From TrEMBL:
Homology family: Belongs to the type-B carboxylesterase/lipase family.
Keyword Hydrolase included in the entry's annotation: yes
Superkingdom of source: Eukaryota
Protein source organism: Anopheles christyi
Alphabetically ordered keywords of this record: Disulfide bond, Glycoprotein, Hydrolase, Serine esterase
Domain Carboxylesterase type B: 79-583
Transmembrane intervals: none
Presence of keyword Glycoprotein: yes
GO molecular function: carboxylic ester hydrolase activity
Protein name as annotated: Carboxylic ester hydrolase
Family annotation (PROSITE patterns): CARBOXYLESTERASE_B_1
Compositionally biased tracts (Acidic residues): 1-14
InterPro entries xref list: AB_hydrolase_fold, CarbesteraseB, Carboxylesterase_B_AS, Type-B_Carboxylest/Lipase
Length: 628
C-alpha cells in the first residue's frame, strides 16, 4: 500500500518509544528498515522480532518493480523499504539521453527512447571529471554518463494507484564535479511522504560548459542535459507512478544556479511546476561567465586543436589538463570560481536551439516559467572558504569591460570601506568585513535579489537553515578542521542531510537517543518540503509538528519575513546591515552602470571623492536587510 500523501506522521512524541531496526536483503544494495514500537524492557527480545517483522513487511508486498514503457520496452528495478517499512522501488542507471559521444560530443543531448529490456539494478557511470577538484590527480567517470535514478513508492504498477508528485534533484559541485547521488544518502522520509524522487547526471567542466565560436561549440551542455532530463520525466515518469504535471525542481549550490537559469530558458518552459533553491542563484558570479574569451583561448592554447573534427575524436582524458585552464578559477569578491560555467547563448545563432541570457538582464523581466519557489540559505554559507580571506581579490566577471586601472581603483575603494568600518567600531578587523563581503557578494545577495524579483509575480518563500546538528555532512565530515565547533550554525550543504537521509544513517538508527534532536529537525524539515512539493505552499495548514504558518515574501503578513530553522522553527524579519547596504550599491554599479557618487562614505573610487549613491531599485526591495 502506498503511503498517504497527506499523512503528517504523527507528533514528535513517538520518537521517545520507538526503536529503529535494520535488516539486509538480497541484492546487497537493498535495505529494509522497520520502525516499531516496543517496551524498553523487551529490547533483549528484539532480534527475533525484527526478523519476523521485516519478513512480513517484504512478503506482504506483491511487486516486481517492473517499468512497462510499452509492449516491447521494459525495465526492472530493485524492491527496497524505508526505515519506516514503507516499500518502494529503486530504478538505477536509467538512460534518459543518447550517449553524448562522437558526433554528439559538444551537442545538445538527444532524448532516449527506451527499447527492449533494461536491468535497472546499478547506477550508470558518472560524468567525466577530476577525482579531486583541488589536486586533479586523475580523471574519473565516463563521457557516456547521462543516466537517472528513480525512487518511487509505487510498487504495484502505475495503473493501480494515484500518481505521486515528483522531486527532481540537480546536484551541485561548481559545474565541475559531482553526480546524481552526490551528498544525498537516501530518500526515506520523502518516500514515506508519497513522493517520487529523481536524481541524475549531467555533463560537467569542459564537456558541460566549454564555449568556442571558432569551433562552433555553443556551451551550456550541462543545462541542456537538465532540460532533456525534464523532457524525459514529462514523457515517462507516469510509468514509474509519478505525475508529470506535478514536478518540483530542486537544486543545491551549482544545482541551484542551474535550476534558476531554467526559470528564464524558453526551452524549459512548463517542464516543472515548483522550484526549491538551496544555496545558489543564477545571479551569483559563479553561475554565469560574461566574458568567455579569456577562458576559451587559454584552454585552446593548452589543448592545441587544429580542427573541429579533433574535438570529436580526441580521447576523454586529453580534455583534462592538470594544472591547466580546465582547473582555472577566477576570483570574484575574494572567492574563486571555475572557468567552465553557463554562458550567454541565443537560439538563432547556434545550432542547438537553446537560449541563455545574461542573468542581470533576465531578472528585469518576469520569468518565462512562473512557479511557486522556495529559496534557502544556510547560516554559515562558505565559512570554510571565508576563513582564508585577508584581502580583496577581484576579476571583473561583469557585463562591462573594465581597464586594469579601474579594477585596481575598485579594489582600493573596497579596502578603504573595510578600514572605515573598523575605525568606526563596526568590526574588529578588515579581514572580518572582507569575509562578510565575500558571503554577501557570492551567495546571500544574489539569492535575496532573485527572491525579491520573483516575489513580484509568484509565491516566494525564504528560508535560513541554522540548525547545527550531526546530520550536517559538510561541517562535520568535509571541513571539520576548517570550521570550529564553537561557531554555531549550518554551513554550505548541511541542509541536505535534513531533506534527504543523513550520511550517518546506520549510526543514527542504532542510537536514536543520541540523535533525537537531529531526527526531530529532519522530520519537521521534510514535512515543510513535502508540503511545498505537493501544494506549492510549505504550510497549507498550520504545521502540526512545528506549529507555524510560513508566509511568502509577497504575502499579506509581511514582505520581509523568512523562516529560520534551528532547534525551534521561527518566523523572523530581516534586519539592517552596513556591509549588505554597501554591496547593493556596488552591485548596481558593476552590473547596471548606476554609479552615482556622494560624500557620505569617505571612499575614493574612479578619481571621484566618494563612492556610490543609493541606486534605483532593480527588483530587490529589501536591499539593506540581513537575516539574524
Amino acid at each position: 500500500m502506498a503511503p498517504n500523501e497527506d499523512d503528517d506522521g504523527g507528533d514528535d512524541a513517538e520518537f521517545s518509544d520507538k526503536i529503529f531496526t535494520r535488516n539486509r536483503l538480497s541484492p546487497p544494495e537493498s535495505e529494509v528498515y522497520s520502525f516499531i514500537t516496543i517496551p524498553r524492557e523487551q529490547v533483549a527480545m528484539l532480534p527475533c522480532a525484527v526478523v519476523l517483522i521485516v519478513h512480513f513487511v517484504i512478503n506482504s508486498v506483491q511487486a516486481s518493480c517492473l517499468a512497462q514503457y510499452d509492449q516491447s520496452a521494459t525495465g526492472t528495478g530493485v524492491l527496497k523499504a524505508t526505515f519506516n517499512s514503507t516499500p518502494y522501488c529503486a530504478y538505477y542507471g536509467v538512460r534518459y539521453a543518447e550517449p553524448p559521444i562522437g558526433n554528439l560530443r559538444f551537442r545538445h543531448s538527444i532524448l532516449h527512447q527506451p527499447s527492449g529490456h533494461s536491468n535497472y539494478s546499478s547506477p550508470g557511470s558518472q560524468c567525466a571529471q577530476y577525482n579531486n577538484p583541488f589536486f586533479q590527480d586523475y580523471v574519473i567517470g565516463d563521457e557516456d554518463c547521462l543516466f537517472a535514478n528513480i525512487y518511487t513508492p509505487d510498487v504495484n504498477g502505475s495503473t493501480e494507484e494515484a500518481a505521486h508528485p515528483v522531486l527532481v534533484f540537480v546536484h551541485g559541485g561548481s559545474y565541475a564535479i559531482g553526480h546524481g547521488e552526490k551528498d544525498i544518502n537516501g530518500v526515506d522520509l520523502l518516500i514515506d511522504s508519497g513522493i517520487v524522487v529523481v536524481t541524475f547526471n549531467y555533463r560537467l567542466n569542459v564537456f558541460g560548459f566549454l564555449k568556442s565560436n571558432r569551433f562552433n561549440i555553443s556551451g551550456n551542455f550541462g543545462l541542456k542535459d537538465q532540460t532533456t532530463l525534464l523532457r524525459w520525466v514529462k514523457h515517462f515518469i507516469a510509468i514509474f507512478g509519478g505525475d508529470p504535471t506535478r514536478v518540483t525542481l530542486l537544486g543545491q549550490s551549482a544545482g541551484a544556479g542551474s535550476v534558476t537559469h531554467h526559470l528564464y530558458i524558453p526551452q524549459s518552459k512548463d517542464l516543472f511546476q515548483r522550484m526549491i533553491v538551496l544555496s545558489g542563484s543564477l545571479l551569483a558570479p559563479w553561475s554565469f561567465l560574461y566574458e568567455t574569451q579569456r577562458c576559451t583561448e587559454s584552454y585552446l592554447n593548452d589543448l592545441q586543436p587544429n580542427t573541429a573534427e579533433e574535438f570529436r575524436t580526441r580521447a576523454v582524458g586529453e580534455f583534462f589538463i592538470p594544472n591547466g585552464t580546465s582547473g582555472f578559477a577566477f576570483p570574484f569578491a575574494s572567492m574563486d570560481t571555475p572557468c567552465f560555467i553557463p554562458v550567454q547563448e541565443q537560439e538563432d545563432l547556434q545550432q542547438d536551439n537553446f537560449t541563455v541570457n545574461a542573468p542581470h538582464q533576465s531578472v528585469l523581466n518576469p520569468p518565462v516559467t512562473k512557479v511557486p519557489i522556495l529559496l534557502s540559505e544556510t547560516a554559515r554559507e562558505f565559512d570554510n572558504q571565508r576563513k582564508h580571506i585577508d584581502k580583496f581579490r577581484f576579476y571583473p566577471n561583469i557585463p562591462q569591460n573594465w581597464t586594469q586601472l579601474e579594477v585596481d581603483e575598485f579594489i582600493s575603494s573596497v579596502h578603504n570601506f573595510t578600514a572605515n568600518l573598523v575605525a568606526e567600531g563596526y568590526a574588529n578587523s578588515s579581514e572580518y568585513v572582507l569575509q562578510q563581503l565575500a558571503g554577501f557578494a557570492n551567495m546571500r545577495y544574489p539569492m535575496r535579489r532573485l527572491a525579491q524579483h520573483l516575489a513580484q509575480t509568484t509565491p516566494t518563500y525564504y528560508l535560513r537553515f541554522e540548525f547545527d546538528g550531526k546530520f550536517g555532512k559538510a561541517k562535520h565530515r568535509y571541513y571539520p578542521t576548517y570550521l570550529s565547533e564553537s561557531e554555531y550554525g549550518a554551513t554550505h550543504g548541511d541542509d541536505l542531510g535534513y531533506i534527504f537521509s543523513p550520511y550517518i544513517l546506520e549510526q543514527a538508527l542504532t542510537d536514536v537517543d543520541q540523535y533525537r534532536e537531529e531526527w526531530r529537525v529532519h522530520r519537521w524539515t521534510v514535512e515543510l518540503i513535502a508540503n511545498f512539493i505537493k501544494h506549492g505552499n510549505p504550510t497549507p495548514t498550520p504545521s502540526k509538528l512545528s506549529n507555524i504558518t510560513w508566509p511568502p515574501l509577497n504575502g499579506n503578513v509581511s514582505a520581509n519575513t523568512y523562516l529560520n530553522i534551528d532547534k525551534t522553527f521561527e518566523i523572523r524579519e530581516f534586519q539592517d546591515d552596513r556591509v549588505l547596504q554597501y554591496w547593493v550599491k556596488v552591485y548596481n554599479c558593476l552590473y547596471y552602470k548606476v554609479c552615482k557618487y556622494v560624500c557620505s562614505t569617505q571612499v575614493v573610487f574612479g578619481k571621484r571623492p566618494c563612492l556610490f549613491d543609493q541606486p534605483p531599485d532593480y527588483g530587490y526591495g529589501g536591499s539593506d536587510e540581513i537575516m539574524k
